[in-house]
Specification:
Layout (H helix, E strand, L loop, with lengths): L1 H19 L19 H73 L5 E4 L2 E4 L2 E2 L16 E2 L4 E4 L10 E5 L6 E2 L4 E8 L6 E3 L3 E3 L5 H8 L4 E4 L3 E9 L2 E8 L9 E6 L2
Antiparallel strand pairs: 1-2, 1-9, 3-8, 4-7, 5-6, 6-8, 8-14, 9-10, 11-12, 12-13, 13-14
């Protein structure tokens, strides 16, 4: 009995000694070691840390898509601008071509107009007003070279040829000072069929015994004024009172030689 007591005491003393030295032997039925759950802060941080890369990727993708859209829009706008410029250029070119065509047509229309104040006598072209010495080219000369004409005035003068035939002309002073007749211009000329001159008007219209009012209107259009009587018809084309062309046409065959055309241009 004493031995048993000693044994128990020895065991107790050895156990106490081991406990004091920090040595602990867990019991077989002790609970397994458990790890603490993460706090809310740790969970949020973890979630943020995980979600940040995906958000950045999405943002970068959005930026790239927006950049692509902007570049495509810029390309489209530049293409539209180029196409509009091309259209404008083509329109300008076409308008220039039309303008050139119109300008090329204008001279021919002026040449055909009776109000171009041109007349051809025996193959010589005259553009009124012209120097009076030019009538000598078809054999007519003036004998009143010593008179004087005031500025912007005109007067009747009749040059003659060698046969004594005369033309009805009006001398005109276009300057701002008095001029002698020899320095004035022929501003108006009247030619009769009986003058036996070959007369051609703008557009190749021949003024001869076959001329009729209808032929004149067919060539030059409707006149500014028309007067019809039993024996003659007058047709007047004009720009103003100082620039006119007048046809005086007899319908009576016995008077045909007195039919005339008068071209006047005091400008």
């Amino acid at each position: 009995m004493k031995k048993m007591i000693k044994t128990v005491l020895l065991v107790a003393l050895s156990s106490a000694a081991l406990t004091g030295c920090g040595i602990f032997y867990p019991m077989e039925n002790s609970l397994p070691e458990t790890k603490p759950l993460p706090s809310e802060t740790e969970s949020t941080v973890s979630e943020v840390t995980v979600s940040e890369p995906s958000q950045k990727q999405e943002e970068s993708k959005k930026q790239e898509s927006s950049k692509k859209e902007e570049s495509s829009k810029k390309e489209e706008s530049s293409k539209k601008e180029e196409s509009s410029k091309t259209e404008e250029s083509s329109q300008d070119e076409s308008s220039e071509e039309v303008t050139e065509e119109e300008s090329s047509q204008e001279p021919s229309e002026e040449e055909d107009s009776i109000l171009n104040f041109q007349i051809s006598l025996n193959g010589v072209d005259y553009q009124l007003p012209f120097d009076r010495e030019q009538l000598s080219w078809i054999g007519y000369s003036f004998e009143d070279g010593y008179g004087e004409l005031e500025p912007k005035q005109h007067t009747l003068s009749k040059p003659k040829n060698e046969e004594g035939d005369t033309l009805n002309t009006q001398l005109w002073n276009p300057s701002d000072e008095a001029l002698s007749y020899s320095d004035c211009k022929v501003g108006s000329i009247e030619v009769h069929l009986g003058d036996e001159l070959e007369v051609v008007l703008p557009g190749g219209f021949v003024f001869d015994e076959n001329v009729t009012p209808d032929a004149v209107k067919e060539q030059y259009g409707e006149p500014e004024s028309e007067h019809i009587s039993d024996k003659y018809v007058t047709l007047r084309y004009k720009k103003d009172l100082m620039r006119t062309v007048e046809f005086f046409l007899y319908t009576d065959e016995s008077m045909t030689k007195f039919s005339s055309v008068t071209v006047k241009n005091f400008s």
